[in-house]
Amino acid sequence: MSDLSTSPAALLDFLSRNYPSAVSSSTSEADLPGLSHHIFSNTAYTDNEKVETSQWLTTSTRLAIPDEDEAKHAERLGSLNIHLSTRTTLLGSKPSVADLALYYRLSPAVKSWSAEERTGEHGFHHIVRFIDFVQNAPLFGLSVKKEDKVDIDLNDVKFVHKPIDAKEEKERKRKEKAAATAVDSQTTLPIGKGKADVDGKSSKKEMAKDVARTAEEKVQGAVTGDAPQHSKKEKKEKQPKPQKQPPKEAPLSPCLIDLRVGHILKAINHPNADSLFVSTIACGDPPGTDNTSEYKGQVVRTVCSGLNGLVPLEEMQGRKIIAVCNLKPVTMRGIKSAAMVLAASPRLKEGEEDNHKGPVELVTPPAGAKAGERVLFEGWAGEPDGVLNPKKKVWETLQPGFTTTEGLEVGFDVGQVPQLQEGEGAARPTGKLVTNSGGACTVKSLSNAVVR
After folding, report:
1. Phi, psi at 16, each rounded to 5°
2. What is the bridge-based pairing of β-strands 293-295 and 335-337?
3. Which residue from 51, 290, 326, 348 lies 20 to 30 Å from 60 (Cα-Cα)?
4. Is 218 helix (H, G, I), strand (E, B) or coil?
């Protein structure tokens, strides 16, 4: 293995060639752990994931050059192989700079592996699959020449491992534990004997002697009428288990709602409902995300919207919209809907009833916005919830604040949300809905409208 693959400078050069807008010539080794956010700007990372990324960067360096101890190196590869057996990427499904570092540093070694090392009974199947995924997946978008890629024949599998059934594995462990408990309960040893010694092991011979000695004492007791005396072990008082602290809830804020740019790839009439459209929308989700599928090489969500008869079907085709991506999926007339399309309609006057006849205008992101790009209301920065808890009614509480301005920009009016009237929230002006680059989301003609 060449030292080049372990050099931070060489890795940075590789990243700069593939992601010139995210990695500049001034980027240093110290910046590596934070590059994930710049390379994959549509992906949010928790603090734990950032720490894990940093750890995998270190591990990738160790894996690139075998230790003097070959067994230790094989053990590290084995651990990585097991880790990847249930994950698409090192973090699970999210891409990170650690995936790119591991690919760059380990692919030269995988190139030289034999077929047995790749897919044999003791081969590293999942590492090979990971390398193939990183070098070819649109998620990473690497520009690697064909001759530089690891040549992987997907049909050349030397040994097929039986997939682990989670239920069977859990049942097997339960039975093993029950059997061990039964053995322990049937073995009677003198108090203080038969336990692990200082090194954590017990001598089988000593245990056998203890059992024999106990049996002898019982026989003597039966003859003389005296039972063997043993000192009773003092029982320790059980300490009450510390109460688990409930997770700290994030304060109410529109940032809890996961608003993203969506790209409608296809829209059709719902087969079972005249008022609904069924849209196939790319929202920037990584592969394997719950409630997603693949359409024309992109990860997409199926979304039902009550816009049929209010927005022409032609306007729904191939356009960018704003989607609410963390509502709990609902099944609408037999089709599960995994997001909601934001649209504006006139605000009702006092006493007026909503006849649902429109007009309705879709919220449009700024030109050039990419699918999956997150949008936020100015002055309300923060991370969204994974899935909004329907019982807490976060969306229902905050949605009345979604509005449009005289300039036809979508904004958040805190004055429409009584729960935010106390503290700093009450003094905030209407915050525009903007992308990371600062472009505002707009509607065609409806001002002072309701957005939902």
Report:
1. -65, -35
2. unpaired
3. 290
4. helix
pLDDT over 80 at 377, yes or no: yes
pLDDT digits (tens, 9 = 90+) for 22-35: 999 889 988 999 99
3-state SS class at 271: coil
- Cβ-in-10-Å burial (0-12, 13-18, 19+) of 84 comes to buried
CA nearest to 140, candidates 96, 93, 101: 96
Contact (Cβ atoms closer than 8 angstroms) between residue 394 and residue 255 = no
Q: Exposed, middle or buried: residue 131 (CB in 10 Å: 0-12, 13-18, 19+)?
A: buried
Give pLDDT tens digits for 115-171: 888 888 878 888 999 999 999 999 999 998 888 899 887 666 555 555 556 676 677
What CA–CA distance (Å, rounded) separates 96 from 86?
17
Report CA dihedral (354, 359, 365, 370) to the nearest 10 degrees. Answer: 90
The pair of structure tokens assigned to 360 is 């309705």
Nearest residue to 443 via CA among 262, 322, 339, 310: 322
213's enclosing H/E stretch is helix 204-224
344-363 confidence digits (pLDDT tens): 999 988 878 877 778 999 99
DSSP sequence for 54-103 = HHHHHHHHHHHS--S-HHHHHHHHHHHHHHHTT-SBTTBSS--HHHHHHH
Instruction: Give 407-452 as a DSSP string.
Output: TSBEEE-GGG-GGG-SGGGGGPPPEEEEETT-PBPB-SS--S-EE-
**Structure tokens belonging to residue 245:** 């602290």
Q: What is the 3-state secondary structure (H, E, C) of 158-205?
A: CCCCCCCCHHHHHHHHHHHHHHHHHHHHHCCCCCCCCCCCCCCCCCHH
Contact 403, 448 (CB under 8 A): yes
